[in-house]
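Hey, quick one: can you model this chain's 3D structure?
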Amino acid sequence: MEVNKIHKYFRWLIYIFELYFLYSLEQNPILSVGFFGARPLLLVSAFVSIALFEKEYTGMAFGVLTGMLLDFSFGNSLGIYALLLCILGYTLGVLSTYFFRCNFWTALVSTALITSAIVALRFYFNYILPQFENKSFAWMNFCVPIIIYSVALTPIIFLFNRSISYFVNAGGGQNKIRLS
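Sure thing. Here's the predicted structure for all 180 residues.
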């Protein structure tokens, strides 16, 4: 087996452990960090940075894995978030490979958009479909803090995944990675 394939599997193993750790951190009430009653979606930040650093099929595979973990944690039917993140993982992989550079701002904007979409979808299923009376109160007090808190913690996860990519690829590999 050549060295490049060993590095790829090692990188995937680190990413899987990272997703498992972040999932455990989100689900455990003792270890979870909350801010104004909101718990961040750390899995989405990790998924975005993995999809940006890797190619399209790896982003798609980790999108399915992250989506299944989100489906488990939200208590929804299995597959809603897995399908959504599968498509977004492929799209992010293609965009970062061929169209734009993988940098800090790209990860921050992508995380903000994808987290907003996931929270909006969750808001739709939990508040709009059951015809909740105070929709605006629920959006402002539950959903917006989750989005802000998730995006605020994105730099830590991005820098961790960037260090993995630099370490394993010896210089960042195919993508031109910049902090600015």
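One thing worth noting: The beta strands are 102-103, 177-178.
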